[in-house]
Amino acid sequence: MLRIFEIVPGGELRQIQLEDVPRVVGGTYISIDGSTSNTGITILTSRAVPIITMSLSADGKEHDPFRYKVNFKRVMEYILLNYQTLTNIFYEEPVIGYAGSVKALYGLLPTVPEILIEHEDEFNKRPTKPIFKEIPNQTWKRLFLAPEKIPSGTELQKEAIRRKVEAMFPWATNKVITQDECDAIGMGVACGGRVFTGLEDTITSKKKAKPFQYIVHFIGAETDLEAVSYMLDEMDSWKPKLPAKFQGGTYSITTLNGRGIFDNKVYQEMGDQDKVLILKFKSTQYQNVMLEHDMTDLASQCSYIYAVVWRKTRKGNK
Length: 318
Description:
The chain has 318 residues and is an alpha/beta fold. It folds into 2 domains: 2-203, Ribonuclease H-like superfamily/Ribonuclease H (Nucleotidyltransferase, domain 5); 214-311, no CATH class. Helices cover 36% and strands 21% of the residues. The strands form 2 sheets. The chain has a 7-stranded mixed β-sheet, sandwiched between helices. A 4-stranded mixed β-sheet has the order 8-11-10-9, sandwiched between helices. α6 (154-168) crosses α7 (179-195).
């Protein structure tokens, strides 16, 4: 089910239909919080002000992920083809929580890039072609919640994001606005404002990294879905085992460009956090790492390598 609100001057929410969306003037980018059951979509101005908020929810308690993707693609295709002024599309990188959500999350992820490719000739005619950007979950939350720190735990993070969204935009206090919409708004405000004020690099900037000892398991696969499915199925048999504090948690994939020293990439992506990293790179890259870990055969059989990394020594367990 699709529900769309236009935010009119004064903060009133006016419900509109999909075909009315292109008539709402002023949008320059779109922010999407993809979910397996309810996706939040927000269109914002170059000043990072939301003018449209949407919720696409699954029909019924038992929903078909393939049907859900088709509906999502229908909505996004209509918006991207008919809303001529959109130049950026921000999409939250999937956060892997449990096996049942993996296929649906990675089914949704390529939807927008598919549309951009399928209608490439149309988009190339525009003065500015829409650009698709995947945004790390923790990056936009850190930027949006600053100067406050990101709380620990998913529920506390949701509460903090909703609280700040409602403080910035009082119309969001209406309980019909879903958490996924609040997340899309928060990500849009955090990232969009930086793109249109020349601070785009801060979306992915990293603090100076400190070296540490780490455990790594390598997975060879052709797709993210294949790699994640294998990880969730096999992690119980790994030696050393994944620490109990991370089992049943959420994980996201970071793609490396193959440049630089692998250890430094691990340190940079981990920063001062204690978490599980999944670092993806082409099997032809970091050959010294593959040789060091006796993984050259694995690299020769797959297109991509996924390094699952966590700290060897953790806080409270030294």
